[in-house]
């Protein structure tokens, strides 16, 4: 679960988020949308403890992040898998080694690593590519490696920041289906995206940000066509 309770984030004199209140219960799925600079990445960074709120409280899996010191950050990171737009894969390592990285960081060694990595690659349909270099893979395949890495230690929460940003509509739909599959087995999923046309095709909850404020929380199919994010594709 994720809960924001009167959360504000200010960078210097810039208000990135203001008085944000929402909750994703365990097993919920939502898209996070809004214009460039609306505060999507900042919101995700607060969940990952890359940033701290200026005011208010963020809860992840019922833990109040304000109460956790920096030494607890790895504990939260193990509970929150993250998928980035540009994959952030290591091109000098194999697919297997990229996916295994969070397990190594968590101190896991031996056979369990192989078992977990292969289970994860199997879920994203890339079991046959474990020895390949990510460089030899297509954009969609690279994104699936990024997803396998995000879920390899079975986090209860999965975040994604523009995970389909560089992909064509067909591949984007495939990637979204993977997120739905993880959600169906109980993972809480929050996906930041500009891609209103893609999320219009799915009747899922949408959190809409504008200028750091939550201006919409509901099913997009119920919304007037100008909301939320006003179809902006900038940024
Ligand atoms: N490290 C920072 N220092 C100063 N200002 C920042 C910082 N990070 C973000 N901001 C500002 O906070 C606001 C929200 O930015 P954020 O990156 O969260 O928006 P976003 O919705 O993710 O945008 P995009 O879709 O372009 O990635 C913007 O005005 C941005 O300029």
From TrEMBL:
Protein name from the UniProt record: Cell division ATP-binding protein FtsE
Gene Ontology CC terms, in alphabetical order: plasma membrane
Assembly, per entry: Homodimer. Forms a membrane-associated complex with FtsX.
Gene designation per UniProt: ftsE
Gene Ontology MF term list: ATP binding; ATP hydrolysis activity; transmembrane transporter activity
Domain ABC transporter: 2-233
UniProt keyword annotations, A-Z: ATP-binding, Cell cycle, Cell division, Cell membrane, Membrane, Nucleotide-binding
Similarity remark: Belongs to the ABC transporter superfamily.
Superkingdom: Bacteria
Main location, first listed in the record: membrane
Classification via Gene3D superfamilies: P-loop containing nucleotide triphosphate hydrolases
GO biological processes: cell division
Cell compartment(s), UniProt: Cell inner membrane; Cell membrane
Xref: PANTHER family: CELL DIVISION ATP-BINDING PROTEIN FTSE (PTHR24220:SF470), IMPORT ATP-BINDING PROTEIN (PTHR24220)
InterPro entries: AAA+_ATPase (IPR003593), ABC_transporter-like_ATP-bd (IPR003439), ABC_transporter-like_CS (IPR017871), ABC_transpr_LolD-like (IPR015854), Cell_div_FtsE (IPR005286), P-loop_NTPase (IPR027417)
Membrane topology recorded in Swiss-Prot or TrEMBL: Peripheral membrane protein
Purpose of the protein: Part of the ABC transporter FtsEX involved in cellular division. Important for assembly or stability of the septal ring.
SMART domains: AAA
């Amino acid at each position: 679960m994720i809960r924001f309770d009167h959360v504000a984030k200010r960078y210097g004199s810039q208000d990135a988020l203001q008085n944000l209140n929402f909750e994703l219960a365990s097993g919920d799925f939502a898209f996070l949308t809004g214009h460039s600079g609306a505060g999507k990445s900042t919101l995700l960074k607060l969940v990952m403890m890359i940033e701290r709120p200026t005011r208010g409280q963020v809860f992840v899996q019922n833990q109040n992040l304000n109460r956790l010191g920096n030494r607890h950050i790895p504990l939260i990171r193990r509970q929150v898998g993250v998928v980035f737009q540009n994959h952030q894969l290591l091109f000098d390592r194999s697919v297997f080694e990229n996916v295994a990285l969070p397990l190594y960081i968590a101190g896991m060694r031996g056979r369990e690593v192989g078992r977990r990595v292969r289970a994860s690659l199997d879920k994203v349909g890339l079991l046959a590519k474990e020895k390949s270099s990510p460089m030899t893979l297509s954009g969609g395949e690279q994104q699936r490696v990024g997803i396998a890495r995000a879920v390899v230690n079975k986090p209860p929460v999965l975040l994604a920041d523009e995970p389909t940003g560089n992909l064509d509509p067909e591949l984007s739909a495939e990637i979204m289906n993977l997120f739905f599959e993880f959600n169906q087995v109980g993972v809480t999923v929050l996906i930041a995206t500009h891609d209103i046309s893609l999320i219009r095709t799915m009747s899922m909850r949408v959190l809409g940000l504008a200028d750091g404020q939550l201006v919409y929380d509901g099913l997009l199919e119920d919304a007037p066509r100008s909301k939320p994010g006003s179809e902006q594709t900038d940024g």
